[in-house]
Amino acid sequence: MKVNLSFILLLILVNTSAYSSIVMTDDKLSIIVTPPADYNRKDTVHIVGNFNNWALSGNKSHQLRYVEGKLVADIPNNQQDIIFGFVRNSDWKSIPSRESGNALCLFLHQKNSTNHHIKIEIPAWKDDKPGKVATQTIVGNVKVLKDFAMPQLGRQTNISIYLPPSYKENNQQKYPVLYMLDGQNIFDDSTAYSDEWLVDESMERLASTGKLNEFIVVGIANGPRRWNEYNPWNYKSWDTQVEEIGEGDKTITFIRDSLKPFIDKNYRTKAENTSTGLAGSSLGGLMALYGAMEHSDVFGFIAAFSPSLAVENMAGNNVLFAALKNQKEMGRVKIYADMGKVEYGNYEKVEFLQQLLLESGVAEKNLKIVKDDLGRHCELDWSKRFPSAVGWLFKE
């Protein structure tokens, strides 16, 4: 069964000290895990990663064994950068987290490391009741609109609006706007699924140094049907293998017809498409690219962080690549996209994306593809690439 990396958002500190009862050879890595204090020995824990195609069963699976209060496993050291995580009781929703419930990013073992023992501590599991309350981490001028109506999707959502430092100082100035999907993750640890993006911290820092033209950021929190609402095309479900209906067009229509008019009416914005952007990660990155393809009259610039490039339809065709091959005119849109090498094991998919975008009419000067050799599929790494991404997008 194929596993989409959108479901695997884990981070933990990797400490390369040895566990004395494990004897290793050069072709093996020893994983020693300190489980949560309330660990139940009846639970199963598997280590999954690019070294075993994320397998939870079969001859490639690796279940950790209990040894003197630790969970241990030996995995192949195949001289590649290894990205890996843990799954409890074969449930992809049961992954490592902080005690606050924030999921942790994937672990990374670099191929040039001389350490063959990796010691890890798992504070808690994502599907357990949090033992602590996550701290609110908003900085700067961020307003939160609770229960904003989404008539196109028949539900409500929270909208977070970051206003730059000069917004209060100059009441005549108008600003570009960047709309960001998965908005609950971008400003605040207390609402984030995993680590927050530190967008507000980055914006404040960049504004203080004068290295960035200021702009407004609007975060749109996702909902319980994220896979449907963040897929522009019908797709094959990764777990049930049945066709699901993509409702991404409704999400974009909400931004275009409901949210953007509200923001333009109530805040000092530059409303034209050359001053309006759409950004997202994973499935949100897929949606941002869809915005460039079908709504370049609304969104003049796009940021797709680790866009999901493995979503397929029932015929087994990549939904994005199939749509791009039929794309006749992209419009004058500026696109930033990035990818971590360890996400897919190589850069073939993002390089093919680059080729298709150029063939669809995107000007080479308006396309920036960033390859991060150690980039993982999580907010922690996207936050590191955010400042340079917006620096390029908002460069006049």
TrEMBL record:
Keywords: Signal. It comes from the Bacteria. InterPro entries: AB_hydrolase_fold, Esterase-like, Ig-like_fold, Mycobacterial_A85_antigen. The keyword tRNA-binding does not apply. Residues 1-20 form the signal peptide. The keyword S-adenosyl-L-methionine does not apply. Pfam families: Esterase (PF00756). PANTHER family: ENTEROCHELIN ESTERASE-RELATED, FERRI-BACILLIBACTIN ESTERASE BESA. This is Esterase.
